[in-house]
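Just curious. Protein, please.
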Amino acid sequence: MVNGPLGEDDFIEPLSILLSDHNNKSKLNAFGQVLMQQQILNQLTNRSKLYQFVNKRNLPKVSSPVIVSGLPRSGTTFLFDLLQCDTNFRSPLTWEIYEMMPIANSMPIKLLKIFKTKLKLRMIKTLIPNLMNIHPMDANLPEECQQIMSIDFKSIFWAYSANVPEYEAFLRTCDYSSAILWHSRFLQALETTHKPKNWLLKDPSHIQHIPEILKIYPDARFIFIHRDPLEVIPSISSLTTHVRAPFTKNINKVEIGQKALSFWKNAIDSFILDKSLIPKKQVIDIRFNKLIADPLKNISLIYKAFGLYLNIENQETMQQYLNKQKKISRHQYGYDEFGLEVDVVKASFKKYIDMYCLNR
């Protein structure tokens, strides 16, 4: 049971839809049912504790965020981790999100939370052996915003974990304002231990949250990475398959592929429509291939666009990070196994591909 107030009631509709899908559509196995129930209870508990935490304090406005986004599997994590080498940025770390509340206000509490997170990541690695090759995770590395917004139950996180068709349809058209509000509350809580000059955030889903983000963070700056959707859609389908496999009775790869295509086409359509809302001085576009070919050159372009200064120490740290990058096993996936057709994917994203010259 969750004790204490849960704040505004915006979460009730998405949570109700999610629970209905879990009961009627997800085909979760016994382990999956227990795990999903526990995750929902954990997030309700986090929500209650966070609500009480911020309501007891007169907290200042959150520091200006720099947001990395783009279609999933577009190099957003790579750029996110690279930018995190700059000490002027602060990102929500994996341990801060996985052990959200209470806020760690002492070193012993911090170390305990890190230890608990490492155990959780070890369990995830055991359940999903290939996940770390596809999406590397570490307790002390930054993590994306979908995990934070899941406390308002408006997050693609829940759709990655199980087949939830009605919930996924809800996410396509719902107003994310309440989720971004709770996101900002969490950042306010983290700032009670250290308030950064700039927050560094990342989430592919933010391509379809632009109006809501600007409502809560009007001074937010956006870095959009653009990669050929022909590479993206089968890759995210493969990731979803790996994540769901331990928790469901059966996996329908064709269904996963078709829903990934439909969901992210809708997200890109929203992005194309809403991007003009961002003031030009607050946005920069980066091509995936150019980022991978010369990361530091693109870092220089980002800093110049946003009027940021990269000192020698932080630049050296970034270079050291790049030097330490290990070659990981290639993420294997194919079109046929997900019922995808190259021509259909091209046609679905034609406007986006043409806009950013992503043709092969």
In short: The mean pLDDT is 89. Residues 9-90+148-355 form a domain with the Rossmann fold fold (CATH 3.40.50.300). The first strand starts at residue 65 and ends at 70. The radius of gyration is 20 Å.
